Amino acid sequence: MADLHAFFHPRTVAIVGASNKKGKIGNVLVRNMIDCGYPGRIYPINPKAEEVEGLRCYPSLSAVGGKVDLVVIAVPAARVINVARECGQAGVKNLVVISAGFKEVGREGLLLERELTGICRKYGMGLLGPNCVGMIDTHVPINASFSAVFPQRGNIAFISQSGAMLVAILDWSQTIGLGFSRIVSLGNKADLNEADFIADAADDPHTRVILCYIEDVARGQQFLQAARAAVRKKPVIILKSGASQAGARAASSHTGALAGSDLAYETAFRQCGIIRARSMAELFDLAVAFAHQPAPGGNRIAVITNAGGPGIVTTDNIEMSDLAIARLTKETARELRSNLPPEAAIYNPVDVLGDAGADRYRFALEKVLGDQNVDGAVVLVCPTAVTEPEQTARAIIETHRSHPEKPVLAAYMGGKILAEGARLLAEAGIPCFTFPEPAVKALSGMVRYARARELPAKVEEPAPEGIQREPVRELFQKVRQEGRLTLLGSEASQVAAYYGIKTAPIILATSPDEAAARAQEIGFPVVMKVASPQILHKSDIGGVKVGIKTPREAQRAFIDITENVQRFLPRAVIHGIEVQKMMPQGTELIIGMTRDVQFGPLIAFGLGGIYVNLLKDVSFRLAYSLTREEIQKMLTETRAYTLLRGYRGEKPRDLEAIIEMIARTARLVLDFPEIAEMDINPVFAYTDGAWALDIKITIS
Amino acid sequence: MADLHAFFHPRTVAIVGASNKKGKIGNVLVRNMIDCGYPGRIYPINPKAEEVEGLRCYPSLSAVGGKVDLVVIAVPAARVINVARECGQAGVKNLVVISAGFKEVGREGLLLERELTGICRKYGMGLLGPNCVGMIDTHVPINASFSAVFPQRGNIAFISQSGAMLVAILDWSQTIGLGFSRIVSLGNKADLNEADFIADAADDPHTRVILCYIEDVARGQQFLQAARAAVRKKPVIILKSGASQAGARAASSHTGALAGSDLAYETAFRQCGIIRARSMAELFDLAVAFAHQPAPGGNRIAVITNAGGPGIVTTDNIEMSDLAIARLTKETARELRSNLPPEAAIYNPVDVLGDAGADRYRFALEKVLGDQNVDGAVVLVCPTAVTEPEQTARAIIETHRSHPEKPVLAAYMGGKILAEGARLLAEAGIPCFTFPEPAVKALSGMVRYARARELPAKVEEPAPEGIQREPVRELFQKVRQEGRLTLLGSEASQVAAYYGIKTAPIILATSPDEAAARAQEIGFPVVMKVASPQILHKSDIGGVKVGIKTPREAQRAFIDITENVQRFLPRAVIHGIEVQKMMPQGTELIIGMTRDVQFGPLIAFGLGGIYVNLLKDVSFRLAYSLTREEIQKMLTETRAYTLLRGYRGEKPRDLEAIIEMIARTARLVLDFPEIAEMDINPVFAYTDGAWALDIKITIS
């Protein structure tokens, strides 16, 4: 991971393309750097100017004479290469390339971008961009961007792959008084990417919450590592677009980025403990909540309201999320009963009634926050004739101060009457919304984060025992030498067996007599199926015979199958007939793997058999760092789990054996990146053990 | 349905409990009525005052002398009864009872409320409330409420079961300039309810969109009828709370309402074409969209943006909703290509680039709205150095005027820089949001409405032929006389047969010889099962024998089953052994019915067999007005449908036969409200026909 301390804290900054012409980016860059109060030295570079915005202007970087830590480049794309080279030779540490005209404009731009990256790599320079708005740190302070707005100082780091969105958000943030620690416009991510900035923000003392808008990740593994480590320190909230097919198309035409599938992102985010925002509003609602409120210790929420309807709406939203309505202790109920009017609802939601002033809110909030069964609170205020919005705000703020470990969020449902109260709350760090739903959503995100933070730090599991890597490698080589990419069932079974996956014995026979002999070896009854990767639905053409009980039947089956196949598919290449032990019926499961370009192997688990695609009862995990604990969770996410635990009086299946098989499958596909796809369908799970029956492996 | 013309257009209004004391409800009511510009006569009633707010005050209603159309009552609950009686005697047409202290405070209040309703019924008076904020019509104008805010005139009717929420919304509406035609606070709904006001608003020329917040409906059938009729005239958007269990609890403690299950509401809303809002924000976002924009003719949406990122976010949201990204015609693409800069993206989303001024937006919007492949548009504006927010707003407004049949929504992503442009748009009726997601959500709601509006008007289907009602009635009577509530399998089968549902023949036998004889009648092979409503899992105790092929085996099975049951459940009452035709294996389905307190029978359809509860592949419809077309839709919503159409090369099942069975089941449960629950599981569907195998019927 890049060390970005020097990037955000340069002692000297040069701006190449500095200009005196108002409105030009080269002018805005210089002005922004001056106006933000940057404490270091600023060197405008432009051979045609003596002075820019009152600063001495240099004809070139070398003319500066002294060391320059950071160079911001805003010259036409074609000239960027030369400037970068000059920077490299002068020992510059980092570049921010504002200029557009690179990867995003097509092949020529891509080549230019590669050249630029090559230069940066050669000289060990970090590079933000190209084609970006720049970066800001409000605490340094530094403004190496052409943003028209310098944000209010705060504790939110915002990293955005879209420059326009970043500028829009900065403009909008002023209307709600949102403060930022850092702003990073990623641009084309030719070098520094979201993972670098997430990792650095995780260690930045001024950042409390990390916000990202991304359309893809640059490097899957780097991202996973950075995100996982960051989440243990502070919340990482990401809005990821490009999820829909058309969205992905737009993404690729926009930044030329290679988008991973949304499933892989969804899985990766969950496995890292990233909170995924579903909309821009949610992204910032979560940011506001995390910026000043603690993550709750649990999910039990108290609601205080002065009106029934909004209380019910809030309760609904709590119950439909992963939050729960807290059950107040008897002590709390008693206290509320004796101090609130008799008509007040003293069970959660606590209805302090329409005539409640600030004191009643203060009392109720004090009691519920002091309740050991409450992990956080939502306070609702509706305007009535006697509502005291500002005093109530102060009561909330003060009461929260004595319970700083529990989050408090508010909804002030109204307009002008409540505006000042809402402002007071926001200013004091109590997130205040117009409607209750976003408050509940934000709290729900906080609870999810609190759980994710507890994910175990060390995620590497010891490799399963008894693995034979070399024979698998040799087998793949043999298959490739034969010009095939799909393994025969017996080969796939062999591969699985080398990795300690229990498979129903299966052997290839090439004559009726061999079939009989193999069947005898394996033990009757057996199943026999044609071995031909070209034939997908073997049963449909008479390519499978089940329940073979004698050597004679085996011979007969060999002949029958061969004849059937020759009749229906005379051109199919037949490698022989596979003889497989016929296993007693077990619970049918599927364990599979598909490979994502960004995040590598995705392991699937679910109900197996012929209805896999119909029922779609499948859960996914990334194979990387897949712990047994995660596999266990993966199981519980499926309906198959209900069957496995013993459905309608049946005995439970051997969960350990299933977990073991998943772990070994994950190891196999990690060890062999050439495995493009793999399906074990069905796996038969029994009360004792689990066996792989049919295995398909495709290599690349 | 109540005729509410007189309610909203009274020529004279009396306010009982009128007061001169500022801040008192009795004073606010009089002031509100005067201030709104009510054109009729206002009579304050209070024996202790000569004059209220400059109007002559009368000691009693009878003292007024003339006819009073509407009386607003704001005296303590105990005195309301007498006032109401006096109103009745004086020929008053409608009452608005503001006073609280009725059903919501417990049993005593409930009795008081019943008395009040009785008086209103006796004199034929309409009653709004009690325990409500009142009502407003901005076009009459009339303000029979104690709301502190008189809303801006507009075309949104808002009907709310929560008074506090209504007041909060009115306060908030001023900050965004939202206009209303009507405001109704339902209160306890002792008489007039949401259905009455929905029906009336549907015919109100000043109302374009009907908005409701409800916690329950008063009368299911009335509601369905009103909503269905209203939806054909204008959109009905409902936020229904009390969905979660705890939510339902809170609802019942709040209004004492008997809440139906959320599933029934969900189904009812969908069947009526009601748009269900999922949050308060969504309720009003939809309202704003419907208030001024036309419902689109289809779901193909064009996006115009000046920045890539927001375009991708919008595309994602469109693709993930029931909207589609429009494919522009070649002609449009050609026009855009020749008139926009070369870097512009001319396929949808159309990216007019960051340096776009108003003219470029105008050109692009004109072209996409003129495209026959486009049903509506979302315009995104991000602030850049050259953005022209106000001129762009005007361009959008003017362009939309030449394509008034297609909805246009906007997202102005930013703060102060864009505020005036956003205001211009909102004022001109172009909904303008801060972020793109709500625009897409609103458009999606509009598309759903456009589809719902097309639902056939006449929903009564002819009753299925060959139905014998009388014998079913007699059979239920017989079962009840025997002191049972659960029918035997053979009885349930008989009931189904009377309604033309094909059932696998099943006959009760009470001796081994009879069993043999019955089996011969039916034809071998047969299944035999113990007939005892007390035994739930018959197989588990040896109460079922399958594949019986001879009379001898039938005799043997009778003895075996009897012995097994006597051994395991010696106390079970055995009515005999049922002999049923063994049907060949078909696709296993379930058709079931559960009865909702509000909406009556809910019909379920899905995958059957023992995994029903595991797979939960079930769709629901209300039995009332269930058309064949709806049944067809119901089928397609399940995964079972994929099986039925012919999965993996199998022949399709007889869909007509399944539809027929559902229609007949619906008829049966509508004809016999005493059927509390019914399950046909499994139904075996074949390529030709569908047969009911196991039927359970419980009566009440």
TrEMBL record, chains A, B:
Keywords: ATP-binding, Ligase, Nucleotide-binding, Transferase
Domain called ATP-grasp: residue spans: 493-529
UniProt xrefs under PROSITE patterns: ATP_GRASP
Top-level taxon in the UniProt lineage: Bacteria
InterPro entries xref list: AcCoA-synth-alpha, Acyl-CoA_Synth/Transferase, ATP-grasp, ATP_grasp_subdomain_1, CoA-bd, Ligase_CoA_dom, NAD(P)-bd_dom_sf, Succ_CoA_lig_flav_dom
GO molecular function: acetate-CoA ligase (ADP-forming) activity; ATP binding; metal ion binding; transferase activity
Similarity-based family: In the N-terminal section; belongs to the acetate CoA ligase alpha subunit family.
Name this polypeptide is given: Acetyltransferase
Biological source species: Desulfofundulus australicus DSM 11792
